[in-house]
Amino acid sequence: MLIRSRIVLPMTAPPLEDGAVLVSRDRIQAVGRFSDLRRLDAEVVDLGDVVVLPGLINSHCHLDYTRLMGRLVPPKTFPDWIKSILAAKSEWQESDYAASWLDGARQLLESGTTSVVNIESVPTIVAGCRQATPLRVFSHLEMTGVRSGLDPASILDRALAALRNLEPGRAGLGLSPHAPYSTLPALIEGTARQARAAGIRTTTHVAESHAESEMFLYRRGPMFSWLEPQRPMDDCGIGSPVQHLERHGLLGPDHIAVHANYLWDGDVERLARSGTHVVHCPTSHDYFGHQRFPLEPLRSAGVNLTLGTDSLASTRVIPGRRVTLSLLAEVREFLSKNSLVSPLEALAWITVHGARALGVDGRLGELSPGALADLIAIPHSGAVEDAVEAVVNHGGCVSASLIDGEWAIAPGESVR
Fold first, then answer.
1. Model confidence over 106-123: pLDDT tens digits?
2. Which residue blocks in 69-136 are alpha helix, DSSP H?
3. Which ranges constitute the DSSP H helices of 14-93?
4. CB burial class (10 A; 0-12, 13-18, 19+) of residue 278?
5. CA atoms of 261 and 207, how far apart (whole Å)
């Protein structure tokens, strides 16, 4: 199949006017000008006035929280929000989580995401939900431990057993110790050891809030006061949350650190030295009113930076504005607060950088020979130099989406 478009934006090469992408089964065979590739024996699919680019990679999401949108008001403290989402979740049945998960997957697909790192809080729905969407879902099973009362070894054994019952499918599987404050050190250490032995990638919320930093640095604050009766606190008062992850072996090139908003002395260097990837969630960041994301120190240190949508449970609902899970909306929110970042660089965060964070460099996040055939099309009839702006500012559904060489959204059709 030879897919033709007004502009092809490979992300690892300059844009091409009247470009084409040759796809055979689940792989890209060639990328070039249509005039150079048209002689090949392939069915031509002309998408017309669109920009074709790699499918977008969402490095952090909670699909099963999609239908909690608007139910939680922005809190005074981060622990207040945790308490409110725990209360809201307690009212749901398994079917509610599944419906919410699938709704979120549809929204991501419509807005251009083809791969997502999803934190799975309900393991029993994962297999069925993954089969019901064409998205590449990198499912990371969430582990906590404070409220369950289970010992860390049992929590990890249960998660590993659940992973063994799941098929990796077109994406992959991983583990997610939720956060330093909601787990015990033994769970983090065990996860790091077992995951690396099995070649499993990990992700953790870390340094998300001021309350978390206060807890670990100074043994004080609302999170410390709330959790002190619920967990041992001897891991507090001896360093930052990032130091905590480093001390217990979780940082590394196979780990994605989510948020990293409140970094202490040396934390940037720890993340860079270990090769840890960092995902920033701009809309969620704004919802909580966090301090400015430490973009420049992280970027200057060479940390691989990506973007994620987080969940709609931490999104402001504004009357008259449609709110959905959309990576391009996250890019626009990010650019509105970071004028020194170009739209092209931000777009790289959700393509090339996202693939790097998942350990699939060269296979996802770019249009190049040998890469997996994941691409999207976004309307644009203007000049080639305006293509990136057109992509970033696009709202609504993409014109087409191809995942693994099959149409997830066929040209002229809606999401299936």
1. 999 999 999 999 999 999
2. 78-89, 94-110, 123-131
3. 34-37, 78-89
4. buried
5. 6
Residues in Cβ contact with 366 at an 8 Å cutoff, skipping those fewer than 6 apart: 10, 11, 12, 54, 351, 352, 355
Cα(53)–Cα(114) distance, rounded to whole angstroms? 11
3-state secondary structure 243-311: HHHHHCCCCCCCEEEEECCCCCCCHHHHHHHHCCEEEECHHHHHHHCCCCCCHHHHHHCCCCEEECCEC
pTM for the full predicted model: 0.97
Phi, psi of 137 (to 5 degrees): -110, 110
Dmax (CA) for the chain in angstroms is: 71
pLDDT exceeds 80 at position 379 = yes
What is the token pair recorded at 326? 């959309």
What's the length of the chain? Answer: 416
CA angle (329, 404, 308) in 5-degree steps: 25
Residue recorded with tokens 């033709």: 4
Of the listed ranges 32-41, 317-326, 366-375, the least confidently predicted one is 317-326
260 neighbors 283 (Cβ within 8 angstroms): no
Closest among 239, 323, 265 to 70, alpha carbons compared: 323
User: What average pLDDT does the segment 243-264 reach?
Assistant: 98
> 138 forms bridges with which residues in the sheet?
117, 172
Structure tokens at 140: 């990371």
- Please give the structure tokens belonging to residue 297: 């120190």
Strands (E), 99-226: 113-120, 136-143, 172-177, 201-206
What is the token pair recorded at 335? 């650019």
Q: What is the pLDDT of residue 414?
A: 59
SS3 71: coil
Domains of the chain from N-terminus onward: 2-55+366-409 (2.30.40.10), 56-357 (3.20.20.140)
**In this predicted model, what pLDDT tens digit does every residue of 269-310 receive, in sequence order?**
999 999 999 999 999 999 999 999 999 999 999 999 999 999
Q: 54 has which bridge partners?
A: 375
pLDDT at 416: 45
Residue 54: what residue type?
P
